Amino acid sequence: MNDSGASEARLTATPAGVRLGPLDTIADGAARNFVLQMRAGRFHGFIVRRGDAVHGYVDRCPHMGLPLAQALDAYLTPDGIHIACSWHGAVFAVENGLCLGGPCTGQRLTPWPVTVTDGQIVTATSDRD
Ligand code: FES
Questions:
Q1: What is the pTM of this model?
Q2: Is the C-beta atom of 87 inside 6 A of ligand 1?
């Protein structure tokens, strides 16, 4: 890649309160990629929707640090039950990002805290800090 010009830092967190659009932009049971351009750099994440709940993660596999999907929004196993990395087959739990199988078993995706407020997906603060 040749990102000429200003250095393009890849961020692993976002401020709270960034509006990401209506919940309905993600079909129930599906996942969607989000890229946020901020002054400090660019953030790549994805969100999985389960009914009215959303689960967000940084788009970086703990195995080799690659973005999980090689096709747009292709973050899930064919049955839609788990998150899958397209590179070497790591499989993750939707609810907590724990790697259940593959080359990084026992490691976790980095959470990207997101919530739904008045039908809108919004970034949140980490409730682990
Ligand atoms: S980079 Fe995800 S399984 Fe290897």
A1: 0.92
A2: yes
Q: Which domain holds residue 105?
A: 9-123
DSSP 17: T
Residue 84 Cβ contacting ligand 1 at under 6 Å = no
Tell whether 62 is covered by a domain.
yes
C-alpha span between 55 and 51 (Å, rounded): 11
Each residue's pLDDT, cut to its tens digit, for the chain (129 residues) gives: 444 445 578 999 999 999 999 999 999 999 999 999 999 999 999 999 999 999 999 999 999 999 999 999 999 999 999 999 999 999 999 999 999 999 999 999 999 999 999 999 999 997 654
Cα–Cα distance measured from residue 95 to residue 129, given in angstroms and rounded to the nearest whole number: 18
Comparing C-alpha atoms, which of 110, 102, 37, 46 is closest to residue 72?
A: 46
Residue of 87, 100, 105, 108 with the most ligand 1 atoms within 8 Å of its CB, for mutation: 87
| Residue 83 in contact with ligand 1 by CB distance below 6 A | no
The total domain count for the chain is 1
